[in-house]
Automatic annotation (TrEMBL):
Name the record gives this protein: SusD family protein
UniProt keyword annotation of Membrane present: yes
The family this protein is said to belong to: Belongs to the SusD family.
A Pfam family this chain is assigned to: SusD_RagB
C-alpha cells in the first residue's frame, strides 16, 4: 500500500488505441507478453491512461456537451452549422450516430488501457525488489483502478436506466464488463447492479492504493492526477446516482471536511477585476478543482467552447445559445451569471444579440498562442460535492442540513448572501436543489442524467432566432431517449450477445 501522493510528469502516451469495447491492439504493435517489462513502462502506461482522457470525445467535447445539448439548456440558432443537430433535435438519435459511438468507444479505450496495465503489472512486480519501486507500482495500479471506475461510471450514466433499488437494478441492463485485456469474457451486458458493483469494487481498490500518508500536508486541489480524494468524490457521485443517501453523505463529507479544497469566491479577487471563481474558467486554476484534465499548449484535447462562440477574431457565430429560462434562474446578486454569460451581437445576417456562454471561451494562456476555445475540464469539483450532500440530506429528511450546504455555495457565488437558505418541505427543497444544480453545473454534462434519475421531462419554448425544428420540443419523463442507444457496430460485432436499449428500437 502506498501512503504518499506523487505527481508524475506528463510524457508521450503509449499507443494502446481501441475504438470499441473489445477492440485490441493491431497485430503490428508490441505483442502483449513483451509489453510493459519495467516500472518505467508501467508509469508510461499510466500516462497513456491520463492521455486517453484528453480525447475530444470525452470531457473536452462530446461527453460533456451532448447530454446537456440534448435537454433544455441551450437552443440551436438560425444559420448554425448543424453540428450535433441530431442530438439537439432529440428524435433523430440513432444507434449509428457517430458522436455517440465516439463517446462509447473512447470510454472503452480508457478501460482497455487500464486492463492492459493491470494484466501486465504482476509480471513487473515479481521482478522488482526495491520498496520505492514497489510503492510506485501500487500508485500506478491505484490510478488505473480509478480511471477504469470513472470510465465505467460514465458508460452506466449514459447507456443505462436510472438506478431505483438493488432489486430493480438486478433486472435492468448494465454495461459490458471487462477486467482483462486478454480474456474470454462474454460480449454481453451485465446487470445494472453488477455494473455499479464493479465500479465500487474498483474504487475500493483505488482508495487503498492511493491513500495519503497520515502526516501529508501538501496541496491536492487543482491537480490533473488521481488521489485518495478523487476516489471519495466519485464515490459520492455514484452513491447519489444509486440513491444510497447515507453513502453519498459519508463520502461527500470526507471531501468537504478534508480541508484540502475551498469554494472559489466570486468576490475575492486574484488580480484586479478577476475573482477566484472567474479565474477557474479563464485560466483553469482553482482551489475547488478536485480533478481536472490537464492540458498544455502542446498537448490538449477538444475545443469545448467552440459551439458557443465560433469566434474568428472578427465575429461570433455560435451554434447554440443559452436558454432564456436558465439565464433567468440566476438572482441579481449571483455573480455566476456574469461569469458564464455576456451579451454580444452575433455575426449572422439576422444580427441576434443575446447573452452567449463565455464559460468555455478559452484558457487565456492558450489564447495567447491563438488557440481558441480550449478549456481544461474540471471533472470533479467541490461545489458538486456540496450539491450531492444537500440532495442526499433532503432525501434523508434533513432539509435544514441541506440548506446549510446550499448556503455555503451561494455565499461563495453571490455578491452578498446573508443568513440561511429556506428549504421548506421536501418537495420545495428538491426544487431549490434542482435549480441550484442548473446554475452551478451549467453545461458541464449533468442535466440529462439529472432529469432521468428525477423522472422529469422538459419542454422547450421558442426564443429569438432559435431553430424551429427542435425549439418547441416537449419530452415526457422516462422517454426512451434519456438512455442512449448502444452503438450498432457493438450489436453487430461477431459473437456479440449485446442486448439493445429501448432507444435502439
Amino acid at each position: 500500500m502506498i501512503k504518499k501522493f506523487r505527481l508524475y510528469i506528463m510524457l508521450a502516451a503509449v499507443m494502446l488505441s481501441a475504438t470499441s469495447c473489445l477492440d485490441k491492439l493491431p497485430e503490428d504493435e508490441v505483442p502483449f507478453d513483451q509489453a510493459i517489462q519495467t516500472v518505467d513502462d508501467v508509469n508510461l502506461a499510466v500516462i497513456g491512461i491520463y492521455d486517453a482522457y484528453k480525447s475530444k470525445y470525452l470531457y473536452s467535447g462530446n461527453l460533456t456537451l451532448l447530454p446537456d445539448l440534448q435537454t433544455d439548456l441551450v437552443y440551436g440558432i438560425n444559420g448554425n452549422t448543424n453540428i450535433y443537430g441530431d442530438i439537439w433535435r432529440w428524435k433523430d438519435i440513432l444507434a449509428t450516430n457517430t458522436d455517440i459511438e465516439a463517446v462509447y468507444g473512447s470510454l472503452y479505450e480508457v478501460i482497455n488501457r487500464c486492463n492492459f496495465l493491470l494484466d501486465r503489472v504482476d509480471n513487473v512486480r515479481k521482478n522488482t525488489t526495491d520498496d520505492t519501486a514497489l510503492d510506485k507500482l501500487d500508485q500506478c495500479c491505484g490510478e488505473a483502478y480509478f480511471a477504469r471506475a470513472l470510465a465505467y461510471s460514465e458508460l452506466i450514466k449514459l447507456f443505462c436506466k436510472a438506478y431505483e433499488s438493488d432489486e430493480d437494478a438486478t433486472n435492468q441492463l448494465g454495461v459490458i464488463l471487462s477486467q482483462h485485456y486478454r480474456g474470454d469474457e462474454e460480449m454481453k451486458r451485465s446487470s445494472l447492479k453488477d455494473s455499479y458493483q464493479f465500479v465500487l469494487d474498483d474504487l475500493d481498490r483505488a482508495a487503498d492504493l492511493l491513500e495519503l500518508e497520515e502526516d501529508f500536508s501538501g496541496a491536492l486541489y487543482d491537480t490533473p492526477y488521481f488521489n485518495e480524494y478523487t476516489v471519495y468524490a466519485l464515490r459520492a457521485r455514484v452513491a447519489l446516482y444509486m440513491k444510497k443517501w447515507d453513502e453519498a453523505i459519508k463520502y461527500s463529507t470526507k471531501v468537504i471536511e478534508s480541508g484540502y479544497y475551498t469554494l472559489s469566491s466570486c468576490t475575492q479577487q486574484i488580480s484586479s477585476g478577476i475573482s477566484y471563481y472567474k479565474y477557474m474558467w479563464t485560466n483553469d486554476h482553482s482551489t475547488e478543482a478536485i480533478w481536472k484534465v490537464g492540458f498544455t499548449i502542446n498537448s490538449y484535447g477538444g475545443r469545448l467552447g467552440t459551439i458557443f462562440a465560433n469566434y474568428d477574431y472578427t465575429t461570433l457565430r455560435p451554434d447554440y445559445v443559452p436558454a432564456k429560462w436558465a439565464i433567468n434562474l440566476y438572482d441579481a446578486n449571483d455573480l455566476r451569471a456574469s461569469t458564464f454569460f455576456q451579451s454580444f451581437t452575433t455575426g449572422y445576417s439576422h444580427g441576434l444579440t443575446w447573452p452567449l456562454l463565455i464559460k468555455y471561451f478559452g484558457n487565456e494562456e492558450f489564447t495567447n498562442y491563438k488557440i481558441l476555445h480550449v478549456t481544461m475540464p474540471k471533472v470533479l469539483r467541490l461545489s458538486e460535492q456540496y450539491l450531492i450532500r444537500a440532495e442526499a440530506y433532503v432525501q434523508s429528511g434533513k432539509t435544514a442540513e441541506a440548506g446549510k450546504d446550499i448556503t455555503a455555495i451561494r455565499a461563495a457565488r453571490y455578491a452578498t448572501y446573508g443568513g440561511s437558505t429556506p428549504m421548506g418541505d421536501k418537495e420545495n427543497a428538491m426544487k431549490v436543489i434542482e435549480e441550484e444544480r442548473v446554475k452551478e453545473l451549467y453545461m458541464e454534462g449533468f442535466r440529462l442524467q439529472d432529469l432521468k434519475r428525477w423522472h422529469k421531462g422538459f419542454k422547450r419554448e421558442l426564443q429569438d432566432q432559435s431553430l424551429s425544428n427542435g425549439s418547441s420540443l416537449k419530452v415526457e419523463a422516462d422517454d426512451p431517449m434519456f438512455v442512449w442507444p448502444i452503438p450498432q457496430h457493438e450489436l453487430d460485432a461477431p459473437g456479440s450477445e449485446v442486448e439493445p436499449n429501448e432507444s435502439n428500437k
